[in-house]
Request: fold
Amino acid sequence: MYLNYMVNVNEKLTQQVAHLARLELSQQEVELFTNQLNQVLQYVQKLQELDVKNVEPMVHPVSLDSYLREDIIQKPLEDSEGHPLILSSAPETLFEGFKVPPIL
Reply:
């Protein structure tokens, strides 16, 4: 849907929006944001003038080809008893895994 009119943001509208957003703005901030909002709306108006009838919609502006390697499952190194060697660095183990403190 295209806007056929230009919305002009004034200080009163900026103050109303700030009030709805529960923001306290100084007078200097109101003037700054009013100016910035008008610049954004002018840019949107400029974008609406573009002819995009023959432009195919995109999900992402950059091609997302994946260059990641395939997952390779490797069996962990084991000690002489067949337990994972990484567990030898654990202070305590439980059920052939790391024992961690309870969180609840």
